[in-house]
Structures
1.
Amino acid sequence: MLLAQVEGFLEVARRGNVSRAAEAMFVTQPTLTARLHALERELGEPLFARTRRGMRLTDAGRAFLPYAERAMRAVRDGRQALTDARTASAGRLVLGAAPAVSTYVLPALLQRFAAAYPRIEVAVRTGHSEDVLQMLLREEVQLAMVRTMRHPDIESIPLYEEALVLVVPPGHPFAKRSKVGIADVASERLIFFDRTSSYYELTQSFFLSLGVTPREVMELDNIESAKKMVERRLGIALLPRTAVAGELAAKTLTQVVVTDAPALSQKIVAIRRRDQGRPSGTVAAFLNLLRESDPAAIAHLPSRSG
Amino acid sequence: MLLAQVEGFLEVARRGNVSRAAEAMFVTQPTLTARLHALERELGEPLFARTRRGMRLTDAGRAFLPYAERAMRAVRDGRQALTDARTASAGRLVLGAAPAVSTYVLPALLQRFAAAYPRIEVAVRTGHSEDVLQMLLREEVQLAMVRTMRHPDIESIPLYEEALVLVVPPGHPFAKRSKVGIADVASERLIFFDRTSSYYELTQSFFLSLGVTPREVMELDNIESAKKMVERRLGIALLPRTAVAGELAAKTLTQVVVTDAPALSQKIVAIRRRDQGRPSGTVAAFLNLLRESDPAAIAHLPSRSG
DNA sequence: ACGACCCCATAGGAAACGTCTATAGCTAGC
DNA sequence: GCTAGCTATAGACGTTTCCTATGGGGTCGT
């Protein structure tokens, strides 16, 4: 069955006239007649009664009509959906993100994205990088923003480098000193967060590689709480710069540079399934936004507007 | 766009494998590949990402999927609807009927019809024959049961002859006499019904043609009331036999034969639009039921079961 | 009553398309 | 490196589809 036949059926049903319908469809009248005959033959029933005045629907034709309309509408809508997706003018984008990305980077990014593509519906699934990778592999998310990961089935697009910075409360002795050494840090009370997170491991191995055994005083399961603890002078912490940008600007936390230790950072990438072909539609739109953005800008966008 | 392409798309999307899908659809793998290519070319977008493992949907493919399913379902349901209509196993039948037919003949007929075709939905529109004819011409009803009418756009199928019989209350002088003449009738008080109905005109001209000027005592707008009036001895009436079958059987009314007057009757026919082609589906089913029935049986069926 | 017109159906030939078999190209896994 | 499993491609064959031109039937206007 050709869709052109169904379309012809509808057009003729509407106009009650093969010649006019043919003209409207830019084919000749015999062509349209043939299509109708073919459709009737396939369905095993005349859909039209031929009269002097033209074509009238038979009972069978009337019974078939709503289904024909439904089918054509479905195809038309499907085409439109593809066009929307191609121009990314509408559709759905499901993102995965590591917690720090989700909380501190995505909001500003999505604000810009929503402004550029108001008809795209966005969903975010947050989880540790490993879990988000699994979501990606199960196709529960289309694109994920996580720390650098390796897997044969994914490809990565570098986004930005997220520095871990040492923050102390205002008025802390470190805040006044121009130079702080790693040995100084080791004597401070350190606040860690989320033992299941990769940050925990990263910071731990950082200290260990420098021969420092941190005196752990507190471990929290989220960054926000860790910041609050530092603000309340319960210790100092190594936190993602994106997570403390607001507090640094508001001067409720102070960044301290450790002079005799290498910069600690983690690469954040966007990953997607390698077998999905070229990014298309909403995913491509989002990647374009990322590409147009200065990597530093992504990482430094304030987490709260203003 | 071929429906076979859409179907192929769905099958491949389900199985993720062209070869298997082709096998399931009883075509060769290159054929199905060609269909997919044609569909992708027409939609201007790859629907599948080709991988070592087989075919995976792209975002575009995923976006198109629900519409493809909807379209296929619509066509499948449409086919089923036609099959239902052809076998009259389901569907809708809209009948028009004159009041006397609707009240006294249709119930028993529809009872049998509903038993034979339980999944056919039946609707009845009642009105005077002329009005029902208009409904038919406007296609508000598919088939109408009315008195014989002439119109270039309709064709008629004879159903039965409806006799008008003279009824009197039990114990009336006529009931005991073996013979009643038209002159006797003229001296009785007559009850007519519904001046707008064709029965009124029919009975009036009947008497006039016999040179009898009836002494009209009462005119009612429906047959049921007329029967009640006769039962209450307010007069006698000429009523359709189908309308008084129950009362005659229950002996609450008595039929009297007028010996010196011709039998008065009216032909009841089924009419349908001439331009509708051969009757199909539910209409054909109903006509078959009528055809199988003895005409006399139709007209004499008791109006109330029992 | 007759001719002009409008409708759909049909005929025939050219072009396009779909389908097949056979084969190539590619990758993964042994 | 060979095999197995996947999709893509090539070429040939048969069918279908489309066009133009024409037929046949009925209506309407003159």
2.
Amino acid sequence: MVTIRDVAKRASVSVSTASRILSNSTKEKFAEATQLKVLRASVELGYRPNFVARALVSGKTRIVAAVFPRIYDTPFTALASLQILSGIEAYCSENGYHLLLSAPQVSSGKVDSNFNNLLASGYLDGLIIDSHFDIDPIMTALRRFKLPTIVLGYHPHPYYLRSDNHLGGRLLMQHILELHHRHIGLIALPDGMSAAADQRLSGIKAVCEEHGLDYAALPRFNGTFSSQSGATAAAALLEAHPELTALIALNDRIALGAVRQLQAMGCTVPGQISVIGYDDLPQTHDSNPPLTTINQQLSNWGPLAMNMLLTLLEGCEPEPVILPPRLVVRQSTTPLNEFVRREGHQR
Amino acid sequence: MVTIRDVAKRASVSVSTASRILSNSTKEKFAEATQLKVLRASVELGYRPNFVARALVSGKTRIVAAVFPRIYDTPFTALASLQILSGIEAYCSENGYHLLLSAPQVSSGKVDSNFNNLLASGYLDGLIIDSHFDIDPIMTALRRFKLPTIVLGYHPHPYYLRSDNHLGGRLLMQHILELHHRHIGLIALPDGMSAAADQRLSGIKAVCEEHGLDYAALPRFNGTFSSQSGATAAAALLEAHPELTALIALNDRIALGAVRQLQAMGCTVPGQISVIGYDDLPQTHDSNPPLTTINQQLSNWGPLAMNMLLTLLEGCEPEPVILPPRLVVRQSTTPLNEFVRREGHQR
DNA sequence: GCCATTGACGCAAACGTTTGCGCTTTAGGG
DNA sequence: CCCTAAAGCGCAAACGTTTGCGTCAATGGC
């Protein structure tokens, strides 16, 4: 390993001079000739600074962590995480940072010890935490160390980035109403299970009230995160309420499950029943029919969150970010046709 | 920050004694009383060793990197990466290692500078590299540093882990032949584009020869990695060869695209035509019909690769690993029915 | 009772940087 | 010609550990 001492020796200057010329961006005054000597020696020897030593004295590692809690042993969930992760990595790399990935095991209110070690290790300059699930244990573990932190999602924290799920819910409902549907089923999640889902529901409710609809009266069936639960829900809803002409699913996976179930039951989508999802998963492009859904700009999350973290690391106060979701109209929703609409009105 | 010096002072011992008692697992002999004093002082003060300092002297950071090259700006591809990553992370964490994620930009034979910095930084004890795409530039950049490395896939390297894609190809073809199909279309990738795909094709070819079929005569259409290209391929194949009763796709995405296209053309799957994919992507469980495909045990890759890396870090020579893939029969393939079979034989 | 051995611990160097401060030289002003 | 200031550079401490070696006392054998 070639150290700065070697460079200094070859350039016949002191170590401190070499260090200042090589790393100190604040150009202290050095003779042109000296600078050249050092620079040349550096490249000739192929000198690369040892970040560990640098970190020890500066206290800065230029490493940040992305934390995706691992709940019930399920890995950080699916492609959404990957998109975010990819964005963080890219932005990190552009700014000379390195990304450490951590998926701490959270069980019975405790975080695994390796995560605690990581926090105390001094390896991290800051972190970005996904609060898709309950991260209270993580945040309490984190409090002891004064590490700059950005939170993704609804966990209460001064610096956060989230999508406006209320607005997303509104878009969902408005789209369905504009298509003249009035008999609308809801495949939701149990209240309180996910802050994001709750917000989506609140958006739906708000639109209902604006249109004089009784939100509480909407046929509703609670699923989970699996596509199978979407299928179950669709079957149950249609059996209890054959008059339904539209189904709102709170995420794409249950929407896709619902579509599959409907088709298996001989129901055409969107011919007889419109289905709308939420998340804009990649596979919704290619599903049959392509799914109308809500896009959360996931690919922007990583860079934006990392940008917030960087301003925090520079000692400034980043503004929280709330991203507006967008409706993506594909082919799983269609206007209620005249015949059915009239029938609907008769009831 | 509470340092080991504080602990030593509170226990009224020297720093070296504290260090040895706290970290040196090779229990040098110390008086019972001294050990207790130090341990107690340590917990009372909440001492956590600074890994950076420890790394500086020991030369070991207990950080390893997972490298997923970013080609043409596409992020590390999809869920396969995520499954592997999740496995690596879990195994890292269990063994007290930390995982750094790097997705270096590779363009025109060069790797971005941040990746080079990472390699030279001294931050890494070792790395696991995904060779899904061409990683020559990465490997040459890596050669200058003597970092223990495991390669995932077919890139030539002493320590590798891969799935037996030749066997996978065999399974693919055997399954189709056992279902009595004889008019088989191939949605492949251009030769040489992917070592894994080439291997799959070689397996298919081998089975053909064993059954006296002319591999070269199989109707074939080359796609890419997108599901759209699968749709295009299916349409083209069926138009040129209406007699086909089975389609082999070299990956699930193009298989799903093909299924969608077939259904749009009024072809039932598997009623009129069987389709088989490769990869066992999660969405193939829920597609309509659920796809018959090949599973590569991706969730085992991470732990196995990490295990190899750990033995390498301990100074031993790990054995390369070749995992056998498994056929997953779902509902997109079915035996050729009698009528069609007889017709098939007549031609 | 003396010497060698062993057990228990401390001293200080080392890892590769950064950085506060001080030293020398030169230039410039009076 | 002297004094001051600035320019250019080096010394050495510091960051928090680990670890080779040395020291001291106690112990045991003869």
3.
Amino acid sequence: MTYRLPPLNGLRAFEAAARHMSFKHAADELCVTAGAVSQHVKALETALGAKLFRRSARAIALTTEGRQYLPSIRTAFEVIAKATEATAPGLRGRKLRLGIARGLDEAACPVLRRLVSRKESTEIVGSRVKDDPALLADGGLDALLRTSDESCAGLHIDRIVMGGGDTGWMPAILVTRPGIAGCRQHRNLVKLLRA
Amino acid sequence: MTYRLPPLNGLRAFEAAARHMSFKHAADELCVTAGAVSQHVKALETALGAKLFRRSARAIALTTEGRQYLPSIRTAFEVIAKATEATAPGLRGRKLRLGIARGLDEAACPVLRRLVSRKESTEIVGSRVKDDPALLADGGLDALLRTSDESCAGLHIDRIVMGGGDTGWMPAILVTRPGIAGCRQHRNLVKLLRA
DNA sequence: GAAGAGGCTTAGAATAACTGATGCATGAGC
DNA sequence: GCTCATGCATCAGTTATTCTAAGCCTCTTC
């Protein structure tokens, strides 16, 4: 038994675009540019030999084929997401422990202050730690926010540009323990930091 | 609603490897090397934070997590494959019309002779044509086997090395109409040619 | 104990993906 | 009815991922 599977990343772009009814918003969710989403969807359409969206200047609409295709794709993703939740340890319900390296200017960034004082989120606990990715390995920490991406082999990395502070934009690196990256709390954390 | 989705191409490698119980056979199915499958599976395991296979020197075995994860992934792929079959035109049951460009030495290659004489497959019809990808655009042909990959913009390309002939190996390019690439008949054709 | 099969690892090469700029079309605001 | 803002498409260039090829190790078979 083999399957005829279209480009899977194109499916992800398609599903997100259909959910938002916008390439731009889908792109935000997927942390890429609208152009990338556009290209993925186009590649998918080419592979299928069918148009999935009707494009007008300021909006997109599903075609008949797109409307017909979408529910199954969504179902498939739900099945995968559910199985992943069940199989991968993730956080098993506990809060995400975020370390904020001493090199970062917490004071300049409201969201960091709120995370440390637990006012930002009920599922993320921030605290100041020394700048050492080894803290992720021995279980004390789930994610570490720092300024450099050195000695992070095997760890998941997100490049963050934090806004909202008085000093304008502050770039940072969020290093995450394998198995945590991608789960709900991690996605929320990234969204909070980028806000 | 957003999903926690692991690397989707890793899932595909995982499913194929579990089905064959072999990285090598999975690699053949996916038209890559075993190393590539190994890397995909490893990346997936890292993302999940769980081992899916137990590796021994001559075989792989599913771990408990892998055994638990597999059925859902398989279900998801079946859903996608079914929806794709239903939505994408594909061949709609007719035979795949393969053109063999005059530049190719049909005589030297048994499989080509058998395809032209309809003895190789009941769902593929081979015939000799002039070497022009435009034949794919105006509907007369589904795929074209030729020696060069020129002027194939927007078309799907497979690099084939045909064996079995008296003259040893013969490299060729299979150019396929969008919407046909990936469907069963196309996969079978590629497999036949590479055999 | 040599040969062979299967999986792992790695560097480097090939490929795919992403970005950022630009252009176009549409609708909103004045 | 201009002008502006928004959103999608496309392109070239860059970046990042993915793949291959080759070597290594272990176990099995003869």
